[in-house]
Write a structure and sequence with these properties.
mainly alpha; two-stranded parallel ribbon; 9 helices; 2 strands; 6% strand; nucleic acid binding; DDE_SF_endonuclease_dom
Amino acid sequence: MWLDYHFKHRPEPKRPLLLLWDEFSAHWTPEVKAHAAQPRVHLLEVPGGHTSVCQPVDVAWNAPLKQRLRLRWLRRLQEQVARQEIQREDIKPPKRGDVVRWVADSWSELSAATVANGFIGILEPSPLSEDDEQAFTELANKLESMDLLDIAVGEVSDRDDVVDMNLAIAE
């Protein structure tokens, strides 16, 4: 299961984790929720319409990655169709190794700047609507009730933000 692969054998298994998931129904079955509790993974649903803010992959690199994969698939089809007297049954799907190579090559073509740009909108402050303010307050309360939020930390300055510091180092 995906949760086991990514979380069961982590370095600090007793430390709880927070996993943000969209509202895809398979994420929220009773079996998945029960299974997530075993490796101390707390699941939290990203409200509809906010996935792009919480998942940088949707913001920055998913579209260019898929575009590159699509081009590789189309080139392969073009090569097959270009042969003389090709029949329907002669068109073959790509082998798993080919698809893995396409993904690896497509990913390597993405620049570090493209990936980093996925975090820019997350890091820039923007005014919150009343609905968002309420949703985030409810989220903070939920995290606090799960002992996943340290209220003693207080306000965090964006100048002290670890993500900002790491982006500055990467640049």
